[in-house]
Amino acid sequence: MGHKIRKAVFPVAGLGTRFLPATKAMPKEMLTVVDKPVIQYALEEARAAGIEDFIFVTGRNKTALEDHFDYSYELQRTLEERGKTEALALIKSWLPRPGQVASVRQQLPLGLGHAVLCAKNLIGDEPFAVILPDDLVLSKTPCMQQLVDVHEETGGNVVAVVDVPREDTKKYGILDVSSDDGRLASVRGLIEKPAPAEAPSTLSIIGRYILTPTIFGHLEKTGKGAGGEIQLTDGMVKLLGAEPFHGLRFEGARYDCGDKIGFLEANIAFGLARSDVASELRRIIAALA
Ligand code: G1P
Known about the structure:
Elements: E1 7-11, E2 32-33, E3 36-37, H1 38-48, E4 53-58, H2 63-68, H3 73-81, H4 85-93, E5 101-105, H5 112-117, H6 120-123, E6 128-131, E7 135-138, H7 143-154, E8 157-163, E9 173-180, E10 184-192, E11 203-211, H8 214-221, H9 232-237, E12 245-249, E13 253-256, H10 260-272, H11 278-288
Parallel strand pairs: 1-4, 1-6, 4-5, 8-12
Antiparallel strand pairs: 2-3, 6-11, 7-13, 8-11, 9-10, 10-12
Bound molecules: 1-O-phosphono-alpha-D-glucopyranose.
1-O-phosphono-alpha-D-glucopyranose is lined by residues 112, 132, 134-135, 172-173, 192, 204-207, 231-233, 258.
């Protein structure tokens, strides 16, 4: 029923003020979890879901992101000369083909909805994925693949959701659902960052979306919402009723790297999931606790 998802948008224009001074001269998406920048986790997840085109919506001071996915001539040459074959293979294993990574500038920090709208011309007329690199997911099946599987069944729009404590509804986009089988919920309302008392549920959107291109027309007409920004959630509201819209309780654990604690937690969780560092890390945590 659904279309093949070929393209993913990565909104990466944010300033990362919550991570100063780390992000003074470096994009926050280059912060590493264990030994990989968070943006690479995001691209790997997209690629594992069969996505072939990666679109960065960037801003000033974000060139390190483009460099990270480019051929690194001096480094590769040096590694070759020194016979560092393992390191070389590691770097080469993750080079997108020329043309697979494209970027557009957001120009002004007008919000997530505006960032997605900036990718309109590069997406064209097909459903596409949006991945917010701040959200990392540890799961058996990559989270975006889980959304792609649902989209194939249901068509239309699909977002990954998780139940959060009621006091946290003010941090996320929240669903109002008309039916819910415990895994898949049919969405009838959406509200961005509601106060706990006003939240229609505690099902919150994480940074994984499959959207139809209809969203662009709506985003063009969406004014400022929560926080004075053009919100993706407000654009998505206009899709409700007109197109299928589902929330998937994905299998896996989400780590919100948008703040320091979530980021530290992600480092520990991803470290414990890695066979090369897990046992040593477990020993260190026990000794410090
Ligand atoms: C954004 C979205 C929000 C969503 C969240 C997931 O908020 O606006 O609906 O729940 O990402 O991380 P932000 O984290 O940019 O404030």
